[in-house]
Amino acid sequence: MIKIETPLKKDVALSLNAGDQILLNGIIFTSRDTAHRFLLASDFEKIRGATIFHCGPVVRDNVVVSAGPTTSSRMNKFTPGVVAKYDIRAIIGKGGMDQSVLEALKGRAVYLAAVGGAAAIYAKHIKVRNVYKLEFGMPEAIWEFHVSDFPVMVAMDSKGRSLYADVYAKSKAVYQKLTR
Questions:
Q1: Beta strands, E only, the chain
Q2: Which domain, by its residues, includes 101?
Q3: What is the pTM of this model?
């Protein structure tokens, strides 16, 4: 496991490779559909150079109860613009993202896979620092978290490699072999 501090320095983001296992420590921000639209339509400088977590947390009395990754592909259409506008260095989510995002990450950022179904476990690694745009609702607000030894894996790197694309290609080859 590679221990990394956030916000990620650009050279650190560029040094990571698909398959690297990481323990994140530092500040991350949640952002889902509504927050992504807000970010594109306004200036929210707090996230410049940040790590974004595709997550709709459950928070009670300023304590994170549940914080699992949400499906990142819902944010495909927003992500290239958000990455470029705010110089985002990392995105954490579930399920990967499309080719337009992989292109947007080249030379600047990485996509980090978090484990779906581990929301309660992830919550133990998170402390709330702040919340912005709570009027969007708890899951859509922009939460500022401090994470400690938050486990993720580089699934899409800044060099254009995607573990999801690798798995898809291998699966397709096996399928074609089976259906001949």
A1: 2-6, 21-30, 51-53, 58-60, 63-66, 90-93, 110-113, 126-132, 142-156
A2: 2-178
A3: 0.93
